[in-house]
Amino acid sequence: MTAHERVRLAQEIRAGTASATAHLATTLTRIEAENPRLNAYNELLAESARAEAESADRNRAGLLAGLTIAVKDNIATSVGHTTCSSKMLKNYRSPYEATIITRLREAGAVFVGKTNLDEFAMGSSTENSAFGMSRNPWDTTRVPGGSSGGSAVAMAAGLCDIALGSDTGGSIRQPAALCGVVGLKPTYGRVSRYGLVAFGSSLDQIGPITSSVRDAAAVLQVIAGHDPRDSTSASLPVDDYVGELDVPVRHLRVGVPREYLSDANDPRVNTAVREAAEVYRRLGATIVEGIELPLTDVGISTYYVIAPAEASSNLARFDGIRYGHRAQLTAGEDLFDLYAKSRAEGFGPEVQRRIMIGTYVLSSGYYDAYYRRALQVRRLIKNEFDRAFERCDILLGPTSPMPAFVAGGKSDPLSMYLCDVYTVNTNIAGIPGISLPGGMAEENGVRLPIGIQLQAKPFAESLLLRAARMYESATLWHGMRPTR
Ligand code: GLN
Q1: Quick one: CA dihedral 360, 365, 370, 375, positive or negative?
Q2: φ, ψ for residue 68 (rounded to 5)?
Q3: Model pTM above 0.90
Q4: Residues 86, 348: contact at Cβ < 8 Å?
Q5: Which of 115, 116, 175, 334 could form a disulfide with 152 if both were Cys (CB 3.0 to 4.6 A apart)?
Q6: Which is it for strands 110-115 and 68-72: parallel, antiparallel or unpaired?
């Protein structure tokens, strides 16, 4: 194992040669020094974390013993707040915790804090956070990606051992790519969503952001599996992701769909993908020619109908009465005013935009033209992937069409949505995808990470992780960290 594999530290904590308490103290000191500059964390959970670290030192057990975990602030924890980086939930304390939090605690984890995100996970840069954007540690004038930007920053800057994100259309993989770390979105249904604040319920999945493939495998090992509290969680058995990880895939067939190497991409991104294909070829894989995914382009329009439709329904509960910020009424105002004012004050502009789009595409006059149509295209996209996976095991392409962009550079919502072109179809089809550090772009003396994405068949996480590990062990990108 190498230094960027944090599970090695868990091994030492189990053996008693490293102290979880001391490690936590070091991490908290580092966070205090760095967080004002990076704004990765919304809140630290120092007190409960100390108790968890002490119990890790006492028990000396669990796959993740004593490892510090950063939790995206749309995942419910029973300590601290769960804000979704929204004014609507600024003071919200969850009375229960997400299933994955319970499972991770049982594996010895230490929850160090809640991380910043685009409000309600809507965005690709964290600029939609009500608490200010997070900053990319490679260049603080740039965005870290989103929506799980705070988690990716915490991971890249060494402010945690493992981070958790949620991915509805790319929110784990894209910030991982832009910050130079690993991000895994599991198959829809592989991980319980109980306790994840819903955005697009048919698309959402929780997954890890880590500095190595082995750490991602270890986290998935702990959080995957059926949960009686989430009826969409699959009851399929969980593979031995960790045990199988170092077994290279024999006769691996890798497809690089033509559409993934678009001229619209930053050329350095296409170079990274071509070089990754070459790495696989040298490792003995077959590069399958002629794989086509012509519906790649319509993913964005399909996603930006389905996701807002589901969001408009999920966010209806935040009305100032059942949940969330309640506005002050003045004399003569009624219940309708209370709803309208609370929602206008509580939700930021992007969330309001999504609710309006979603309500529109679900309205009786437009349902057939937009929503039903999007569901039909969703099926076609799924079929297209099924056909591709008859000929290859893994699809290789970019995670994001460009490296991290300068903050404020995509103020037009449509240009922001286009960042998601290579990630949304993974969610639309429900398949697993992983982003890996796959290159570096130099720009005016700063280095910016480039991510490559691998996709696989539903529930083929073991194969996906093994293929990812093959690439990782043959390249040096994973070891690179921003200087400071
Ligand atoms: N960027 C996409 C959006 O804004 C994806 C977000 C996500 O995966 N949560 O909807």
Answers
A1: positive
A2: -85, 130
A3: yes
A4: yes
A5: 175
A6: parallel
User: How far apart are the C-alpha atoms of 288 and 231, rounded to whole Å?
Assistant: 37
Q: What is the mean pLDDT of the chain?
A: 97
Give per-residue pLDDT as tens, 161-213.
999 999 999 999 999 999 999 999 999 999 999 999 999 999 999 999 999 99
The rounded distance, in Å, linking the Cα atoms of 17 and 393 is: 41
Q: What is the pLDDT of residues 240-265, one digit of tens each?
A: 999 999 999 999 999 999 999 999 99
pLDDT of 2 reads 61
pLDDT at 443 over 90: no
Distance 322 CA to ligand 1 centre (A): 25
Exposed, middle or buried: residue 408 (CB in 10 Å: 0-12, 13-18, 19+)?
A: exposed
Distance 144 CA to ligand 1 centre (A): 14
**Residue with token string 């690179």:** 480
| Residue 15: how many other CB atoms lie within 10 Å | 10
**Active site annotation includes 147:** yes
Q: Which atom of ligand 1 is nearest to the CA of 350?
A: 4
